[in-house]
Amino acid sequence: MVMRVLVTAGLLAAVGSCSPEPPPADLILHNGRVITVDSGLGDVAALAARAGRVQAVGSDAEVLRLRGPDTHVVDLGGRSVVPGLTDNHFHALGGGPGVDLSGVRTMADLLDAIAARAAETEPGELVVTNSNWHEGQLAEQRLPLRDDLDRVAPDHPVVVVRGGHEFILNSAALSRWGIDEADESPPGGRIGRYDDGRLNGELVDRAKDPVTLPARTAEDAAARFLETQAVMNALGVTALRIPGGTPEQYTMLRRLAEEDRLTMRVEFLFRLRGTPVDEVRTVVASWGVPPDFTTGLLSVGGVKLGVDGGFEGGWMREPYEEPWGRGGTFHGLQTIPTELFHGTVRELSALGWRVATHAVGDAAIDLVLGAYEQADAATPMAERRWTIEHGFIPAPDQFERVRRLGLTVTAQHHLYVAAPSLVDYWGAVRAALTTPLSRYIEEQIPVSLGTDSPVIPHSPFAVLYHFATRGTISAGTMGAEYAVGRMEALRTMTTGYAYQVFAESERGTLAPAMAADLTVLSGDYLAVPDAEIPGLTAVITVVDGRIVHDAR
Questions:
Q1: Of the candidates 143, 136, 163, 139, which has an alpha carbon nearest to the alpha carbon of residue 473?
Q2: Strands (DSSP E) along 379-530, which ranges?
Q3: Which of 408, 434, 412 is nearest to 421 (CA)?
Q4: Radius of gyration of the CA atoms of the chain, in A
Q5: Closest CA to 419 of 531, 316, 324, 311
C-alpha cells in the first residue's frame, strides 16, 4: 500500500509559502482502502478533499494532518473507496405509474399483473406497462402476445412496453390505433404475425410510431428525476449520460442544475429521429443551446441518432437464425434511410455538434462508419470523439476504421439479461460475441460502460460483474474470452467514461487535483466473490466534494 502523502499543486504552493500550515480539508476519509485507479498511486489508506477537489491522498497520519475544526472526518473502518461510478447510456430508472413487471418470473406472473391493473381500471381505459423487464427473466423465455393479453384484459387496450424498440398490443389496442390485418410492415419496422398470418400484437421500431402513450407533466418529470438521482447515488453513481432526450427534458434538467438540485453530473444528448435534412438546422437552433454548453453539473454532450433496432432488430450482415431469419431473408431492421442518415450527420458536423449513433449489428456499424467517414472528409473528427452506441457485433474489418476516426464506443451489459433471446435471434456464436469488451480494449478503442436502463437493470455493479466474468442471469457464462479483469472493468467505467465526455483531466481517478467524485462501497469490489459483485451498494457517495448519499 502506498503510504506517502500526495497533495495538489495548490496545497504544495501553500506549504512552500509564508503560511505555516496548508488549508484544512473539507472532507477526510481514512482507515480504509482508497482505490485511486491511478497507476502511479495505486491504493492508499486515506483521502482529503477541499473545494470539490481531491486535496491529498496517502497514509492516515499524513492525511489527518489536514483536519481542521470544520472538517468532516469519516472513519472508513476498512471499507474500500473507488472513483465515482458512471452510466454511459441511461434513459430512465423504470418504474412510474405503469404496470411494474420487473419482478415477474413466469408468464403467469406477468399476465396476472396486467389483469390486476385492468381490474382496477375503467373498461376502455388504457393499461400500459413499464419497460424495465425482459422476456429473458421469464421461465418461458418468450414474449406475451396479443392472444395472451386478450385473455386477461379483453375490455382494455393494453400496451406492453418492451425495452425501447418494441410494443406489444392486445386486440383492443390494435383497434384503438387503427392497426389491422391488412397493414404491412413499414420501412424500418416490423409488424409481427402468428404462424397463421394473424397480427400477434408486436410492433417493432418504426411500426410502433402510430402508438402514442401518455406523457408526463414537467412537474412529474422533475420529481421522477430527483427520485432517480437518489436511487443512483445509493448505488455509487456520480455521473449519468442521457443518450437522446427531448428539449423538454433538457429544460427540466437545466432548471434543476441552475437551482443546484442535481446530485450527479449529467451529460445530455438531444435526439433527432427522421428529421428531414433541410430542417436539421432549424430544429437544432430551436434547442437554444450551443454544442458543449455546461451549467452547474449539467453538460450538453451532442446529438443521438439511430440506424437499427435492438435485440429483435439489430441490422446484421448475415441473416438471423431460423425461424427469425425467414428463410435467410431477415437481417434485422435499418430504421433510417441511408441518404437521410448521411445528410443528417453532415449537417450536424457542419454545425459543430458531436454525433452518437445507436448501432447494434455489424451492418449498422458499416452504415455509421460510412457516414462518419464522409463527414470526416469535410471536417476532420479525430479529436471530436464521436460515438457508436452499443456496438454489439463489431466485425474485424471495422476496428481500424473506428480507430482512424478517433471514435469511442459505449458498452452495456445487455447479454447479462437477454442472452437466451440473443441466442434465438442470432445463434450462439454471435450471441457470445455481444459487446466484446476485451476486444475493443485490445484494439485500442476507447470504451465506457453503462446499463441502457430501463431496458436492462440499472445497477453499475451488475455491469462490472458481467464484463469481469461474462456471467448472465439465465445462460451461464457466455463469451468468456471477452471478459476483462475487475480492475480493467472499473477503469473502463471511470476513466473510460471521463475520456468519452472530455473530462479525463478532471475526473475518473482519485489523484490529487481531480474532482472529488467517489464512492465508499459496502464490500471490497476487488476481493468479494464474483457472485457478490451485483449485490454491492454505496455506503457513501460524494459528488464535487459533497456527500450526496450516506447510508451509515
A1: 136
A2: 387-390, 408-412, 447-450, 518-521
A3: 434
A4: 24
A5: 311
User: Residue type for 371, please?
Assistant: A
Of 430, 521, 417, residue with least CA distance to 137: 417
Measured in degrees and rounded to the nearest 5, phi and psi for residue 340 equal -65, -40
8 A C-beta contact, residue 408 and residue 499 = yes
What are the grid coordinates assigned to 127, written together?
A: 393499461
**How far is the C-alpha of 316 from the C-alpha of 335, rounded, in Å?**
13
On whether the pTM is more than 0.85, the answer is yes
Residue of 237, 239, 308 lying closest to 268 (CA atoms): 239
**DSSP assignments along 139-192, one per residue:** TT-S---HHHHHHH-TTS-EEEEETTTEEEE-HHHHHHTT--TTPPPPTTEEEE
Confidence of residue 19 (pLDDT cuts 50, 70, 90): low
Residue 86: partners with Cβ closer than 8 Å, 6 or more residues away? 237, 238, 239, 240, 241, 448, 449, 450, 460, 493, 494, 497
> Side-chain half-sphere of 271: how many Cα atoms within 13 Å?
16
Phi/psi of residue 120, nearest 5 degrees: -105, 10
Distance from C-alpha of 489 to C-alpha of 97, rounded to nearest angstrom: 35
Write down how long the chain is: 552
Instruction: Report phi then psi at 80, rounded to 5.
Output: -95, 155
Q: What are phi and psi of 351, to 5 degrees?
A: -85, 0
**How far are the Cα atoms of 101, 128, 129 from residue 98, in angstroms, in the given order?**
9, 5, 4
- Please give the single-letter amino acid code of residue 196: D
C-alpha cell at 426: 442470432
In contact, 33 and 85? CB cutoff 8 Å: no
Query: With bands split at pLDDT 50, 70 and 90, how would you rate the model's confidence at 26?
Result: very high
pLDDT for 158-214, tens place per residue? Answer: 999 987 789 999 999 999 999 999 999 998 889 999 999 999 999 998 899 999 988
Distance CA 429, CA 401 (A): 24
* CA atoms of 497 and 507, how far apart (whole Å): 9
**CA-closest candidate to residue 256, choices 276, 242, 243, 235:** 242
Q: Which residues of 205-219 are buried (b: 16+ CB within 10 A; e: fewer)?
A: bbbbeebeeeeeeee
Residue 505, judged by CB atoms within 10 A of its CB (0-12, 13-18, 19+), counts as exposed
Q: Do 111 and 144 form a contact (C-beta atoms < 8 A)?
A: yes
Q: Which amino acid is at 26?
A: D
358 residue type, one letter:
H
Q: How does DSSP assign 244-307, residue by residue?
A: EE-HHHHHHHHHHHHTT--SSEEEEEEE--S--GGGHHHHHHHT---TT-EETTEEEEEEEEE-
Question: What is the pLDDT, as a whole number, of residue 7?
Answer: 52
Count Cβ atoms below 10 Å from residue 548 Cβ, excluding itself: 21
- What pLDDT score does 290 carry? 96
Predicted confidence (pLDDT) at residue 9 exceeds the cutoff of 50: no
| Residues 467 and 483: beta-carbon distance below 8 Å | yes
